[in-house]
């Protein structure tokens, strides 16, 4: 990394989540690391956040904290807004005052899912849910920091929590139960280790600040992911491909939310294609 000085003092918000925990593991020996989660520091209390961040004096702030209960946000919109948006505003102000770099993570849910090609960074957002609206507000607030990277992720998996759709597919395959997956909902899944590498490469290379998509280098349907997992488990017959029209849940979800990571790939190490990343994930589970 060219700009290793940025790793001397790091502040990680959301340190116990699947992405935050991966950063803590990766950066624990790089420099002075301050890692906090929502149960230790309420990011919706600006005064406490300012005291915690200023006392650590970071050169790099990684905001991995999020209210990511998509359906729950419909019932608790203010809570979702305070965590996903207002906290980003507070951290952006601190990054500005301290001269730090802020990295903030957003979501493909900022789009309406009606485009017939992968979304690019300059495509107009049109969130269809409270969650998507709060994530869009958060990325715009984060952009108030003079030195910022906003990375949009898609269907994040591969962390320690084991609560993602990909994890559910694996558990169902192991149990021999039916694996239902959408045949016509497209994504560019974000694999945690690839997101960590891409983030640190952006920061280390001193890449231009701004908005980047950080999903797989290609795209697929959820049924493709489930089918790949089932084939690896030797149980392809368990797949039940269903139409997106049967999607459960309170909140509207974008149907076609593949994202192009070409911009990221032009300046840093972009994530791998979805099959290579998924194979790495499955190999890691097999070794565990």
Write structural notes for this entry.
It is a single chain. The chain is an alpha/beta fold. It has a domain at 4-161 and 190-215 and 262-271: Rossmann fold. Helix content is 40%, strand content 15%. It is built from 10 helices and 10 strands. The strands form 3 sheets. It has a 6-stranded parallel beta sheet with strand order 2-1-3-4-5-8, with helices on both faces. A two-stranded parallel ribbon has the order 6-10. Strands 7-9 form a two-stranded antiparallel ribbon. Strand 1 (9-13), helix 1 and strand 2 form a beta-alpha-beta unit.
Number of strands: 10
Morphology:
globular
Helix-and-strand structural type? alpha/beta
CATH class of the domain at 4-161 and 190-215 and 262-271: Alpha Beta
Distance between the termini: 30 Å
**Can you give the helix content as a percent range?**
40-55%
Stretches where pLDDT falls below 50 for ≥5 residues?
Answer: none
Order of helices and strands: EHEHEHHEHEHEEHEEHEHH
Widest beta sheet: strand line-up: 2-1-3-4-5-8
CATH arch. level architecture of the domain at 4-161 and 190-215 and 262-271: 3-Layer(aba) Sandwich
Number of helices: 10
Largest sheet: 6 strands, parallel
Q: What is CATH's topology name of the domain at 4-161 and 190-215 and 262-271? A: Rossmann fold
Q: Mean pLDDT, nearest integer?
A: 94
Strand content: 5-15%
Calculate Rg over CA atoms: 18 Å
CATH homologous superfamily title of the domain at 4-161 and 190-215 and 262-271: NAD(P)-binding Rossmann-like Domain
């Amino acid at each position: 990394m060219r700009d290793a000085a940025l790793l001397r003092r790091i502040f990680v918000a959301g340190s116990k989540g699947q992405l935050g925990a991966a950063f803590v593991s990766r950066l624990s020996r790089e420099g002075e690391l301050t890692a906090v989660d929502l149960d230790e520091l309420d990011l919706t209390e600006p005064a406490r956040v300012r005291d915690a961040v200023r006392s650590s004096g970071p050169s790099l702030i990684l905001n991995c904290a999020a209210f990511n209960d998509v359906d729950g946000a419909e019932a608790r919109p203010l809570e979702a807004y305070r965590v996903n948006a207002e906290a980003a505003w507070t951290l952006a102000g601190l990054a500005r005052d301290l001269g730090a770099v802020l990295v903030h993570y957003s979501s493909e849910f900022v789009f309406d899912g009606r485009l017939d090609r992968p979304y690019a960074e300059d495509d107009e957002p049109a969130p269809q849910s409270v969650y998507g609206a709060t994530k869009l507000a958060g990325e715009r607030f984060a952009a108030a920091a003079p030195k910022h990277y906003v990375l949009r992720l898609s269907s994040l998996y591969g962390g320690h929590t084991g609560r993602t759709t990909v994890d559910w597919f694996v558990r169902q395959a192991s149990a021999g139960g039916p694996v239902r997956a959408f045949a016509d909902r497209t994504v560019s899944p974000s694999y945690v280790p690839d997101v960590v590498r891409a983030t640190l490469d952006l920061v280390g290379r001193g890449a231009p600040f701004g908005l980047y998509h950080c999903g797989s280098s290609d795209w697929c349907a959820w049924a493709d992911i489930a089918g790949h997992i089932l084939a690896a488990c030797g149980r392809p017959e368990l797949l039940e491909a269903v139409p997106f029209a049967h999607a459960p849940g309170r909140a509207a979800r974008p149907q076609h939310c593949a994202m192009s990571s070409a911009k990221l790939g032009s300046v840093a190490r972009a994530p791998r294609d979805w099959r290579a990343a998924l194979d790495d994930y499955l190999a890691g589970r097999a070794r565990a």
